Amino acid sequence: xxxxxxxxxxxxxxxxxxxxxxxxxxxxxxxxxxxxxxxxxxxxxxxxxxxxxxxxxxxxxxxxxxxxxxxxxxxxxxxxxxxxxxxxxxxxxxxxxxxxxxxxxxxxxxxxxxxxxxxxxxxxxxxxxxxxxxxxxxxxxxxxxxxxxxxxxxxxxxxxxxxxxxxxxxxxxxxxxxxxxxxxxxxxxxxxxxxxxxxxxxxxxxxxxxxxxxxxxxxxxxxxxxxxxxxxxxxxxxxxxxxxxxxxxxxxxxxxxxxxxxxxxxxxxxxxxxxxxxxxxxxxxxxxxxxxxxxxxxxxxxxxxxxxxxxxxxxxxxxxxxxxxxxxxxxxxxxxxxxxxxxxxxxxxxxxxxxxxxxxxxxxxxxxxxxxxxxxxxxxxxxxxxxxxxxxxxxxxxxxxxxxxxxxxxxxxxxxxxxxxxxxxxxxxxxxxxxxxxxxxxxxxxxxxxxxxxxxxxxxxxxxxxxxxxxxxxxxxxxxxxxxxxxxxxxxxxxxxxxx
Length: 500
Hints:
mainly beta, Maltoporin, Chain A, 22-stranded antiparallel β-barrel
């Protein structure tokens, strides 16, 4: 079954990207006219680690890692196509540790949007391939990571009912393909097959009707969706949702929000079944172009909860975002939800997460990716900015995950994380970077706490316009209630990168 779904995922991703490319051929020169930039690259580096598998004290294994990384960045902007792709594949040779020998480590992120029929038929495509930690009860060494592929292809029709309403009818095919086949028991002693993630194929149909220009102070939308997720080694997941949302502007900067609907959820476990009404009420406050605050409280996923987002721009290049949400989801749904927020930064052209402005991460979850349905509560805060020769990023998060429907060994995880990055142009050719992070994770029923500290620095020097050298050092220390999960690692890397 895994091979079948993996094949479908590759076909879906390729077909979707091909469909967007064919938009240009179908629409002629008007669609192709624009800017296409293809930047091949090659990086060569060597790293020395004194504890490559992040093993406990006395069990360290040192290793030298040789990496050769060809890659390509693509940016395409035309009248009817927008596309961006960052792809690279590292060929690594490792002299020691669990992954001794040669390996191929792929890393891909990209999206594309094409207008197939003018103002009528569109298609969105997004994809990512990355190395992820499936079970965070294991340490963060590369030997504990698995290659995870995400694909999403979504054609949709747009319509207009005069000034009354706008409509969007969308179909989405989404797939998660995980290389996670292992069932080894972590040091906690609890396996329960939670350190593997099933492949999944999800079909979703959705309809959204939004109030048109004839509604001045009253905004409204009616949405309905139905999805089916077929998972290779776990129960299938079915969702049905319908909701009517109304936003009424009391004044120019302040509006009230209310919604009512119905939700169905079925993951094969009767204890998790949901067939109940949903509702929410709240407000949106936009006192000016810099500030946007939206907060609602209501019933969703069979529990009352808060949902809030805040965005504030100190300047065009400095932004603060914050959010809080509660939801029930599987590990596959966690990965797919992140994929839909990939965009390009209008100032730098880099791939970023539209919610935070941070570099795009295929997996923003700090807790385990598992087949079991989890209730996840997440708070995130991000500050990004550029001031003169300085660029900085600060991100903090709290994530609490409770497994549902398992009365015997229900797993709970709480992750508290803060990290910061600072880069400064010392001169036109030299850039200095510093990064630090702190993460505290608690696990139940093991009654275990891990605390990890990381500190690093890097120096980049542009030898020529298209050739740069770099050197980096990272110190990582983890303490834990479980002796086998405590480790210290020093990692030094030097390398050369060329673009063509």
